[in-house]
Amino acid sequence: MSGKDKVKVGEKMLSVRISRFNPADQSAPKIKEYSVKVHEGARVLDVLKAVRDTLDPTLLFRHCCGAGQCGSCALKVNGEPRLACMTEAADGMLLEPLDLPVIRDLVTDIGKYLKEMPYLVPACEECAGSDGSDASSSGSCSCACSCSFAMPSKEETAEMKPLRDCIECLCCVSVCPAVKVTDFAGPTYMRQEMRLALDPRDCDKDRIIGITEKGLFNCTTCQACVLACPKSIKIPGKAIEKLRILANREGLTLPRHKEVAGLVKTTGRSVQPLPDRKGLIESIDEVLEPYGDVKGEVGFFTGCLYDLRMQSTALDAIEVLRRNGIRIITPKEQVCCGSPLIRTGQTAIVPELMKKNIDCFVKHGIKTVMTVCAGCGSTLKNDYDTPFEVKDINEILTAIDIEKPEKIGLKIAYHDPCHLLRGQGIREQPRRLLRLITDDFVEMPSECCGSGGGVKSGNPAEAEAIGKLRGEEIKESGCDIVATSCPFCEIHVGSVTDKPVRNINTLLVEGYRKKDAKNAENASVKNAPQEQ
Amino acid sequence: MLADNVTDCHVLVVGSGGAGCRAAVEAAKYGDVILLSRSVTGKGGCTTMAEGGYNAVLNPKDSCSSHFEDTIRGGAYLNDRELVKILVEEAPERFADLMNWGAVFDLSCDCDGFEGTHPAQRHFGGQKFNRTCYSGDRTGHEIMATLMEKVRGGDIRIIQEVTVIDLLTETLSGGEVRVCGAVGLDRDGNMIVLRCDAVVLATGGTGQIYDVCTNCATGNGQGYAMAYRAGAELIDMEMVQFHPTGAVYPYDARGRLITEAVRGEGGYLKNSRGERFMAKYDPERMELSTRDVVARSIATEIAEGRGTDKGGVYLDVTHLGAAVIEERLPMMLAQLLNFGVDIRKEPMEVAPTAHHMMGGLRITPECRTTIKGLFACGEVTGGIHGANRLGGNSLADTQVFGKRAGEFAGKSVMHRALMNSPAIVGQLAAEELRFNRFLNGSDSIAEIKERLRKTMWENVGIFRTAEELETALAEIEELSEMTPKADSPAVLAECCVLEDMLTVAALVVRGALLREESRGAHVRKDIVQDWTPETSPYGHTYQSIYREGIEKAGAEDISAEGAGKGGNVQ
Ligand SMILES: Cc1cc2nc3c(=O)[nH]c(=O)nc-3n(C[C@H](O)[C@H](O)[C@H](O)COP(=O)(O)OP(=O)(O)OC[C@H]3O[C@@H](n4cnc5c(N)ncnc54)[C@H](O)[C@@H]3O)c2cc1C
Ligand code: SF4
Ligand code: SF4
Ligand code: FES
User: A125: nearest CA in chain B?
Assistant: First the structure.
């Protein structure tokens, strides 16, 4: 279909694909293409209005304020949740409803979700000292007069305000992996619970118990909600982890999480060493020189998994670094970064861990601390206040011109670790490295694997369910092998797919070996005639 | 025919903006309440868009009499004094309600007059005291968030995304008309019938009848139109506030509010020649003059050819420096960056935009309209703000009169209408006919709407003459003759909205013709007058299906109860 009139100055034609769906007479949505005339600078919402007004009056979409303030107009623009009224329209864009139950076309059933949002239980009017003129409500005090009424302080207000920016657009809910597979009440619900928990006016004494029943421990802290939020509300860090601290105070921490905390407290590590293996740190020299000239120096923060479980992956990383001129210093005194405790609300000993870790790198005069574990990297960058720079290995390797490996002729898909992509904003670097390894790189949707946030240990069934979805996406990608860049993902993704899952560094090492072997072969071929 | 979909309740609240939600919360104390709106509950309406703040006398050094005077003077002495008195006296109590229910307002601890921590209050135009409470630059959103918690936590039935298209009435034995329910259309165009003992109308304003406006998409003025059809009386419908600074670019964002804070922080208004033209119009207050004066000044500059290519004037803050702009105007900076304008480096372009309706349903202090069973609150009512509203008074209005409407509607006696009473059957049949007309219609909704909005903007804007008003009226009449086309039942509601917009536009124009003077927001260029607002010989204009006219000064307190009775035709 196409708008008919002439295009005037300040106007343009734009083509757009829109998902149309009427469950009354369709079994699945259909993408329809439209070409409409809009004004320069038009937002997505203006395009929708133009389609409705000039081409198809039955197109259904929601909007009201047109100014990013009411949260009615959220939809997916080229697959990403956006507010239609605030997003500039682009030619050829694809518009779909959010991943929530669809009513018709672009309209989803948000009302049902919003109805369940938690609310403040105010003090009875007597306690609140309100005007008192209202006799009708006395005697029906909802809190049986156990309320202690106080206005919030400036500090409490400052803490509540960012959580209060929410316009209830449900972009966050639509992307949350935990919502998809469990009874988790969802990110903005938890945001609201935290806002209430901060409020001295709230008289619901059992709030925190209710919250744990709503799936507080189901969040994988994948940060997908933060990225989706038009108001950039940091729900996992500012609400969920904070609520988990409150739950911890009430003794509601999951038993498995408590065990982990106990382990960190006694051993400094969140996992037990394997009986048959030495730890990485124990088995390598504190300073490892590169094979050639020294081009740089990093302090290696190994994290618990690389130290005690995944030593061979860590050794691959070390191999790649040494081959590319990086000196590696691995202080022996380092301990768990504290992530398993912060994510699960058990923060009591975290300051102690932080101090130990910072001190040991400072002692060695290290300027750049490198993490290879995405979870540690995100924690050091976002939860710590470090006197040194923290960089992920993907950043280090792409900042220098690394030696090209021999390509390995396999189709490789990359699983973005949540704590690397969203926690550290690292997207391009791993892809650049992988393109050195293969000519056949395929993209997959960037979804959580389900292992983060203490979910794999505390809630294994959920981790499995989220992982299963991930497994299907891997299958769909048609890859031979999955690359990733986080030990947790490597283990968990490995358990949900029959494709091999490898760290990028392992693949680089493989490429280097192949290259060496080829060179050696070439050399032997060259040498051959002389030998004869 | 009878709709299958009939729902009963004690009080039906139409509209879930600030006024409607407040009314529902209050009415729920007296019986079962339905809170119904066109939008998802709480997401519709202009309340959520309000940035600036809520006026309330809180500081012991401030006084209600001062707030009263500011409001009356701002309103060009056209306000109903009794309503203003209630507004200023109860605004602090209703603010306290919000605070008790969890509202998160900005706090301060260093204001002269207060002890300890207290709500922060900022300066707003036309007021002698800093009495505007705020929550950053999203005060309305904060109020809505608080009320939605209260609604969700209360015993209130919610119906969302249903457009009310008419009120149902029945004639009582004495001949008096009583509102006894409403008819609505759902998303798919199914008719929904609601019966109740009282209706609270809280449908907000009508900026959308203008081509350039700040209002949200539901600001179509349907409440005025349906109450008018049901027989209620409206006052001062000509009083439309134009905000001086709306965006002019991009085209689709034209009219979007550029907050007064930009001028408050020291922004300069300049014409295309680079002159700070406010020096000509109000050398003393310059850019900080009142809304009506600044709006008129900008309109004059543009009309006389000193506007920008895009049809606005410049609003420049570059001289404040990037740091100040980033700290004090973060929302504005972000919003305009989104539209490709960096206000740290270049001026914005602004022009006046239709913003607020001061006129509306005539109400008593108990929020009774002139027909029995119909209560009203919020922007759909008239009389509180006179001829010009002070910034910050509307949010207070929604809470003060929202509570009152809910309370008195809640206290009304139970007498449920009979669904098969001939009158109601007749009304529903009439709706069916209307639907059929639309389903067989031939004219584009979008085109009719565009023509209406253009004519209102061009002929019923800031400056008015009888001739232009007549032009507009003729165009509205012509448009009313057309039949908007509903391609499917789901589009029926849009057709009804359009007809209501035409009705409201006509009410605005007729009001403007009735008022042969310049006062507040209403400027008649073709009338020479020798009186000031204070000495004006006129009171409210009034319009209903029974009568229309303009009151003599001092006669404002016509008994609202009496005015709407069937026999009262003038
Ligand atoms: C951009 C902007 C900024 C503002 N800033 C301020 C400020 O800082 N301070 C201040 O005091 N005032 C301000 N105002 C004015 C103030 O916001 C409004 O006057 C006030 O909020 C109106 O509230 P209300 O409840 O009457 O209507 P609204 O909030 O507009 O709500 C109307 C409700 O009625 C519903 N509705 C409409 N028609 C129908 C129908 N046919 N059927 C069913 N439901 C229907 C809508 O869905 C909505 O829920 C501002 C206005 C705008 C537009
Ligand atoms: S961090 Fe991930 S799992 Fe947790 S609430 Fe946000 S989207 Fe859901
Ligand atoms: S938290 Fe953000 S994404 Fe989620 S509903 Fe609120 S505004 Fe939308
Ligand atoms: S229309 Fe309100 S947020 Fe987009």
Answer: B100
Contact across the interface for B152 and A117, Cβ inside 8 Å: yes
Residues of A in Cβ contact (< 8 Å) with B161: 111
Given pLDDT bands bounded at 50, 70 and 90, which one contains residue A455? very high
> CA nearest A157 in B: which residue?
B104
Interface TM-score (ipTM) > 0.90: yes
Indicate if B427-529 has the same CATH topology as B244-354: no
Show me where the domains of chain A are located: 11-107, 115-130+138-249, 280-399, 412-512
Residues of chain B found within 8 Å of residue A201, distances taken between Cβ atoms: 100-102
- Give the pLDDT of residue A387: 97
- The CA distance from A387 to A395, in Å, is 19
Contact A131 B96 (CB under 8 A): yes
Q: Tell me which CATH code domain B244-354 carries.
A: 3.90.700.10
Is B263 known to be catalytic? yes
The C-alpha atoms of residue B564 and residue A308 are separated, in whole angstroms, by 85
Answer yes or no: same fold for A280-399 and A412-512: yes
* Alpha carbon B327 to its chain's center: 31
A69 in B contact zone (CB under 8 Å): yes
- Ligand 4 mutation target, pool A48, A49, A85, most atoms within 8 A of CB: A85
Best CATH choice for the domain B427-529 from the list 3.30.930.10, 1.25.40.20, 3.40.30.10, 1.20.58.100: 1.20.58.100
In single-letter form, the type of residue at position A40 comes to E
3-state secondary structure at position A429: helix
The CATH architecture to which A115-130+138-249 belongs is Orthogonal Bundle (1.10)
Compute the distance between CA of residue B529 and CA of residue B36 in angstroms, rounded to an integer: 45
CB A339 within 8 A of CB A306: no
Q: Does the beta carbon of A378 lie inside 6 Å of ligand 2?
A: no
Give CA A136 to chain center in angstroms. Answer: 49
Q: Mean of the pLDDT values across residues A453-461?
A: 91
Closest protein CA for atom 2 of ligand 2: A222
Looking at domain A280-399, its CATH class is alpha beta
**pLDDT of residue B568 exceeding 90:** no
Cβ–Cβ of B251/A10 closer than 8 Å?
yes
Residues framing ligand 3 (Cβ under 6 A): A 71, 166-172, 187-188, 191, 228-231, 233
Per-residue pLDDT reduced to its tens digit, A476-502:
999 999 999 999 999 999 999 999 999
CATH code given to domain A412-512: 3.40.50
Phi, psi (degrees; rounded to nearest 5) at B32: -80, 140
Nearest CA in chain B to A204: B153
Distances (CA, A) of A479 to A299, A437, A472, A494, A500: 34, 14, 12, 14, 10
A112 reaches B (C-beta below 8 A):
no
Q: In CATH, which of 3.40.50.720, 3.10.20.30, 2.60.120.10, 3.30.565.10 is domain A11-107?
A: 3.10.20.30
Active site residue B522: no
- Tokens encoding A107: 């309209």
What's the token pair of residue A515?
């290259």
CA quadruple A171, B106, A239, B335: dihedral sign: positive
Residue spans per domain, chain B = 244-354, 427-529
pTM, to two decimals: 0.92
Find the helix packing angle between B492-514 and B445-459, rounded to 10°.
20
CB-based contacts of A187: which residues, under 8 Å, 6+ apart? A172, A173, A176, A179, A219, A225, A235, A236, A239, A240
* A chain contacts of residue B355, beta-carbon cutoff 8 Å: none
CA distance linking residue B525 with residue B511, whole number of Å:
15
- In our burial notation (b when 16+ CB lie closer than 10 A, e otherwise), range A9-26 reads eebeebebebbbbbeeee
The Cα–Cα gap between A434 and A411 comes to: 11
